[in-house]
Specification:
single chain, binds L-homoserine, about 35% helix, 6-stranded parallel sheet, Rossmann fold, elongated, alpha/beta
Length: about 400
């Protein structure tokens, strides 16, 4: 039997308890031993909760209990979660987490401590919710040079964009629904402004390219500027608006990482990833494109990945799984502004004015009878820096890269 402790009894922590209980036979069989939750640490009270007896407030009880070999951190954030994770690793315990903010900001340091202490720091649930992505990258695709990884990495914003397209539902109403379903972050600004995607693409970049990329090194734009007009314009030319995280490994080994809404061609499978689903494309030099698809957020899908890591940690109590990378090197980063693409642009102005600034463009026909003064069009290929200089010359309402 293996004793574990869960830190944080919120959406994910309670989901982990539920999966361990409900799937006890499977968990025992796959871990080749019984997994027993000895403590749940949370500062809140849970009167009447079936697991009330396990709940304690003092983390040092876990830290000082030699029987607890695996600690599950589902607190979130990079404050107390960092302190408890560090102390658990230093106490010789493996740590399993869904905390993308902590892995993205402190992952290099924490994996180093894990290595020094001969324990494991596992975080399959930190990217893509229940989708297996960390292990496939580090194990199944290990024979490849990964040239690019991109995709839909946030369930909340994809749910909002999908509802805007399908049902014309208002933004605030859909966000409330995403919160009620347990998809959104404690502070949903992290979803809406793209920070959650930024953290996840940083983790993927580190795993794919072997070097830590910190969130503050990554240009990040959320979905605040996406309007129903943009979604309708995109549909007219066979595209769907999606918030993407993207990391590119150039031939000279430089790395470009950024987060922004894109117009994705309806020929590209990523455009049909709807609702809370995530879809992640990995481009390897031997395998070509592989896409990972599934529930990207939510209590049980996320718990599914956390419990799989608990099982893995239980099976590797006396062995280290290789999961680490080099620290960041600002010299290795290539500005996203140097990347070329076609651009979708919507401006307040006339077609003549657009032509005089942007030259040869393809206009998207306006709805008959609509006279809102907006003109939408698609540019020729140009890099982000050149595009910005042109955008500065007009009253640009929206401008998104196009991906085919
Ligand atoms: N808020 C996140 C999302 C949770 O919506 O994708 C899963 O990481």
């Amino acid at each position: 039997m293996l004793d574990i402790a869960i830190l944080g009894f919120g959406t994910v922590g309670s989901g982990v308890m539920e999966v361990i209980d409900q799937n006890a036979d499977m968990v025992t069989q796959n871990a080749a031993q019984e997994i027993r939750v000895k403590y749940i640490v949370d500062v809140r009270d849970f009167p009447g909760n079936p697991y009330e007896k396990l709940i304690i407030k003092d983390f040092s009880v876990v830290e000082n209990d030699p029987d607890v070999k695996v600690v599950v951190e589902t607190i979130g954030g990079a404050g107390v979660a960092y302190d408890f994770t560090r102390r658990s690793l230093l106490a010789g315990k493996s740590v399993v987490t869904s905390n993308k903010e902590l892995v993205a900001t402190r992952g290099y340091e924490l994996t180093q401590i894990a290595r020094e202490k001969g324990v494991n720091y596992l975080f399959e649930a930190s990217v893509g919710g229940g989708i297996p992505i960390i292990r496939p990258i580090t194990q199944c695709l290990a024979a490849n040079r990964i040239n690019e990884i991109y995709g839909i990495l946030n369930g909340t914003t994809n749910f909002i964009l999908t509802e805007m397209v399908k049902n014309g539902t208002a933004f605030d109403e859909t966000l409330r629904e995403a919160q009620a379903r347990g998809y959104a972050e404690a502070n949903p600004e992290a979803d809406i402004k793209g920070h959650d995607v930024c953290r996840k693409i940083c983790i993927l970049a580190a795993l794919c390219f072997g070097r830590h990329v910190y969130p503050d090194q990554v240009p990040t734009e959320g979905i605040e500027r996406v309007t129903r007009k943009d979604i309708a314009n995109a549909a007219k030319i066979g595209y769907t608006v999606k918030l993407l995280g993207r990391a590119i490994h150039h031939e000279d080994d430089k790395i470009t990482v950024y987060v922004a809404p894109h117009l994705v061609s309806q020929e590209n499978l990523v455009s049909s990833v709807e609702g809370v689903m995530n879809g992640i494309v990995v481009r390897g030099n031997a395998i070509g494109d592989v896409m990972f698809y599934g529930a990207g957020a939510g209590k049980l899908p996320t718990a599914s990945a956390v419990v799989a890591d608990i099982i893995d940690a239980a099976k590797h109590i006396n062995a280290r799984k290789w999961l680490s990378w080099a620290d960041s090197d600002p010299e290795s980063l290539l500005d996203a502004g140097l990347l070329e693409s076609r651009w979708y642009v919507r401006v307040a102005g006339s077609e003549e004015a657009v032509k005089s600034v942007f030259g040869d463009v393809t206009f998207i026909p306006a709805d008959p009878g609509r006279a809102d003064g907006d003109v939408a069009f698609v540019t020729e290929r140009m890099n982000g820096k050149k595009a910005e200089t042109l955008f500065d010359q007009m009253a640009v309402q929206s401008a998104f890269r196009i991906i085919d």
